[in-house]
Specification:
By secondary structure, the chain is α/β, with parallel strands linked by helices. It has two domains: 6-259 and 460-484, Aldehyde Dehydrogenase, Chain A, domain 1 (3-Layer(aba) Sandwich), CATH 3.40.605; 264-446, Aldehyde Dehydrogenase, Chain A, domain 2 (3-Layer(aba) Sandwich). The chain has 15 helices and 24 strands. The chain has helices spanning 51-70, 73-88, 91-102, 106-130, 162-175, 190-201, 216-225, 238-250, 273-281, 304-315, 336-351, 387-390, 406-413, 429-438, 471-477; strands spanning 6-9, 12-15, 18-20, 23-25, 30-34, 42-47, 135-138, 141-149, 153-156, 180-183, 209-211, 231-235, 255-258, 264-267, 296-300, 355-358, 362-363, 373-374, 377-380, 397-403, 421-425, 443-446, 465-466, 479-487. The chain has a seven-stranded mixed beta sheet with strand order 16-19-20-15-14-21-22, sandwiched between helices. Strands 11-10-9-12-13-23 form a six-stranded mixed beta sheet, sandwiched between helices. Strands 7-8-24 form a three-stranded antiparallel beta sheet. The N and C termini lie far apart (50 Å).
Length: 492
């Protein structure tokens, strides 16, 4: 593997180049990668892919497809377990790089996020290896359903959870027999490069995993438009997904898209109010840059004062600071452009007559020369139609609305075009079932949040997405299903 262009980030050597066909490949053009911890901290100049880069990556994946697809699921699982073991041996280094690059709390990365990448690989490898083909008799024939590898898969990940989502998406593709071209977001590309290093270290066959860096509208558009690509998996904005969907449709390529959310956080009067308020204040985690967060607090009017008293108490405990420090609970936003976007939502809310209950401004953090922090913010909108209620802000901004009846709560919960997730707090099992089913979202949690079973389907309704990931749902997405029928008695 070429050592042509590498930099040291948080004590770890990271390549600035693409990884294609088992080796490092450069580009004439580059783009800057800076740390949200301090925007004056330039991490690297990253190779900026183009049409030729995209074509080379797809060619490498296509060249590896036959041999990789011909392996048994158990043989592929062996490769993926080796990669997972390599991740386990590098948790501290990957966490430090991811923290510097994206700004997520380093303690969270060390404790759960990086290891989740290894769990993703093992989970899908084992699920694929354990799969039993359905067999039945019908009309004098013996029938079997076979999962055939679909071919090269393009995976495009967002900037807010680069490591976790890259491994979450590529694991089922690889386990199903599809070589992968991974395109990380340009705001947080470094952990994908580390993953390529590990793939090289464990001798994953050349071309099975390729990493292409660059701008989405440039190299990403080229990747999803290539007719040799047979699957596309994307996480990002609805606007970008519409463009990808058009490209996929031209080539008749299946694609999944997870496109963010505007989750309701519904609190009924029979709930554990203190637990609900504590969990609600926790929605500021990762500076609100979490697509599954319950950003619309919907509280029964009879308990809103009690809820707010507890909510403010827990919100006051939040510590804005350096995400490398264990005391920090709220990290900086990813990029100056995103900080301006979040600030714009709050400024327009004030102008529209919405009441800013707490926060609502940029925050100063000691030691940061060019900080990207925003205060944990709570807004009471004057109307459910207002922008802060209807659009994903993706920052530490929550809204608060009240309701009287259960029917009104469900109506408010479903009163946006999004449908990724929902959270319900209640002490009644019957209400949990009714409201849980009534909330239009791909995942609804009752009296908890962000508990993930990797075998469960994951995805959104409405403009929150198309298709499902997770467990067998992801494996079948990455497969071409073939029905084999043999006339009974015709073969020995």
């Amino acid at each position: 593997m070429s050592e042509q262009r590498r930099v040291e980030v948080a004590g770890t050597s990271v390549s600035c180049e693409h990884y294609i066909g088992g080796g490092r490949v450069g580009s004439d053009a580059t783009f800057e990668d800076r740390s949200p911890i301090d925007w004056s901290w330039k991490l690297a100049d990253i190779a900026r892919g183009d049409r030729e880069t995209a074509a080379a990556a797809v060619a490498a994946a296509e060249g590896a497809a036959s041999a990789w697809g011909a392996l048994t699921a158990a043989e592929r699982a062996t490769h993926l377990h080796r990669l997972a073991d390599a991740i386990d041996g590098r948790v501290e280094q990957i966490a430090a790089v991811e923290c510097a690059d994206m700004g997520m709390l380093e303690r969270s990365l060390r404790a759960r996020v990086i290891a989740r990448g290894a769990a993703n690989l093992r989970n899908y490898a084992d699920l694929a290896a354990e799969h039993e083909e359905p067999v039945w008799s019908s009309k004098g024939t013996a029938n079997r359903v076979i999962r055939q590898p679909a071919g090269p898969a393009v995976i495009i990940t967002p900037w807010n959870a680069p490591w976790m989502l890259a491994t979450w998406k590529l694991a089922p593709a690889l386990a199903a027999g599809n070589p992968v071209i991974l395109k990380p977001a340009e705001w947080s590309p470094l952990s994908a490069s580390l993953l390529a290093d590990l793939a090289d270290e464990v001798e994953l066959p050349a071309g099975v995993l390729n990493v292409v860096q660059g701008i989405g509208e440039e190299v990403g558009a080229e990747l999803v438009s290539d007719p040799r690509v047979r699957r596309i998996s994307f996480t990002g904005s609805p606007e970008a997904a519409r463009h990808i969907g058009v490209a996929a449709a031209r080539n008749l390529v299946p694609f999944t898209a997870e496109l963010g959310g505007k989750g309701p956080f519904v609190v009924f009067e029979d709930a554990d109010i203190d637990a609900a308020a504590k969990k609600a204040a926790g929605q500021y985690d990762d500076a609100g840059q979490v697509c599954l967060a319950g950003t619309r607090l919907l509280v029964q009017a009879s308990v809103v004062d009690e809820f707010l008293e507890a909510f403010h108490r827990y919100a006051d405990e939040q510590v804005l600071g350096d995400p490398r420090e264990d005391a920090t609970t709220i990290s900086p936003l990813i990029h100056p452009t995103h900080l301006e976007r979040v600030e714009g939502f709050v400024d327009r809310a004030r102008a529209a007559g919405d009441r800013v209950v707490r926060g609502g401004r940029r925050a100063e953090v000691d030691g940061a020369r060019e900080g990207l922090w925003f205060e944990p913010t709570l807004i009471e909108p004057a109307s459910n139609d207002h922008e802060v209620v209807q659009h994903e802000i993706f920052g530490p901004v929550l809204t608060l609305q009240t309701f009287g009846s259960e029917d009104e709560a469900v109506e408010l919960a479903n009163a946006t075009d999004y449908g990724l997730s929902g959270i319900v707090y209640t002490g009644s099992r019957e209400r949990a079932e009714r409201v849980g089913r009534g909330v239009r979202a791909g995942t609804v949690w009752v009296n908890t949040f962000l508990v993930r079973d990797l075998t469960a389907p994951f995805g959104g309704m409405g403009i929150s997405g198309i298709g499902r990931e997770g467990g067998r749902y992801a494996l079948e997405f990455h497969a071409d299903l073939q029905t084999l029928q043999i006339l009974e008695g015709s073969v020995e």
